[in-house]
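Late entry, written up from scratch paper. The run itself happened at the end of the previous shift, but nothing got recorded in the book at the time, so transcribing now.
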Amino acid sequence: MPISRSAERIAITLGDPAGIGPEVALRALRRLTPSERSRILLTGPAGLYDELSRRMGLRLSFAEVGSPAESAPRGKVACLYGLAVPGKLRRGVPSRSWAPVIVRSIDLAVAAALTRQVGAIVTAPISKAVLLEAGFRHAGHTEYLAELAGVGSCEMMLVGGPLRVVLVTRHLPLAEVPRAVTAERVRRTILTTHRELVRSFGIRSPRLVVCGLNPHAGEGGHLGAEELRVIGPAVRSLRGRLSGELAGPLSPDALFHDAYTGRYDAVICMYHDQGLIPLKMISRGFGVNVTLGLPFVRTSPDHGTAYDIADRLCADAGSMLEALRLARWIGARRHEPQRRSP
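Output as recorded:
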């Protein structure tokens, strides 16, 4: 069955316009073919993108559209926003006055995805601090997307080179992680990861490995008891119920090499840096964040707003290009189950 045009369309959110998000989005668009650009919807003000494109010398043209389904005139990139913006933007200088613009951009993209007027969303980076100062009550993109989509929870997967890592806990102070690593959270993360590897990546029998929390996975309880009390029982409760393989808890200082060389399809990590340090070590500039468990495809670059270089217009668009590529591939994979994993 051919894929519908709306399923092929990808919405790219504005992110924080004071950061590098709009810049890397435009650099990525410039490297697409005209046909590929015609299937992009920017959920942000056309004037902002037009001014930035001129400053960057990219020769891209933009047009405001009235709905996600509306196409821009030939040769222009569609922009959906429709409201005024709060004055002049200073690139590299974060301002909470732009928080409503950032959030509206996300809301528009999600609404388009939920009504199937776009097939995927790629989110440009935001600053959690800026949004929190403006009254935003979510820890980040992932939690906000879950609420907008009406799902109880979703998980964060980072993809880079041969590694896929999924986080049991995300943006928490390290001191709070042991209490947050519960058997239910570990089970939920394993189940969601397994389901999405089958559905979105075409891996029929996923090979999953679960990290321990403590050095040497607790060394039999001598270096911590979480593996014995929480993580191990959660893994054992699912072993044999899922297709493929489920290993762990194992010490991450050894298992990441095995995952890198192809022994496992995904690594379940207990906290943020446990997974992101090895992944970014091998994929700096090309990693992609994928949200698992949403009713639509969502990817994003694996970097932040980079305020320190935003006004220099020197950002690398490699991660944004990979995010677009993976969003397009997963969207096609969900419509064509016979396709193989990239």
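Residues 19 and 306 are 6 Å apart (CA to CA).
(Scratch paper discarded after transcription.)
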